[in-house]
Amino acid sequence: VQLVESGGGLVQPGGSLRLSCAASGFTFSRSTMTWFRQAPGKERELVAVITSTGGSTNYADSVKGRFTISRDNAKNMVYLQMNSLGPEDTAVYYCNARLYDIWGQGTQVTVSS
User: Fold this and answer.
1) From residue 31, how far is each of 23, 60, 67, 85, 95 by CA, in Å?
2) What is the spatial distance between Cα 14 and Cα 24, in angstroms, rounded to a whole number?
3) Nearest Cα to Cα of residue 95 among 49, 30, 27
4) How many Cβ atoms are within 10 Å of 63's Cβ, its own excluded?
5) Coil, strand or helix: which one is 41?
6) How many angstroms separate the Cα of 67 from the Cα of each of 1, 63, 84?
7) What is the pLDDT of residues 16-57, one digit of tens each?
8) 33 near 95, Cβ under 8 Å?
9) Cα(8)–Cα(107) distance, integer angstroms
10) pLDDT of residue 24
């Protein structure tokens, strides 16, 4: 039972990254999936949510219009496309399977010139 995030890294302001989260060991298609992030010295913040079928999504105000969450239930994958990144987006990003309270280990995103 695990979630494994990938796709983080160093990107310049204004750039883009696509995070991926691979699920295994549980019935992925049953769970709402979320992306959280945690910046140094700050609390973990909910970034984006997608329902089990992908039919509904929701975003934090701070990322609305810049980030897009999606999923592929056939591949047990959830994604976070991040555009127009700024230094305020620097954080460790985690995916979470809400139904099962499963968390990944996180992937670091650093936005800096």
Assistant:
1) 11, 20, 20, 28, 12
2) 33
3) 49
4) 22
5) coil
6) 27, 6, 9
7) 999 999 999 999 999 999 999 999 999 999 999 999 999 999
8) yes
9) 5
10) 97
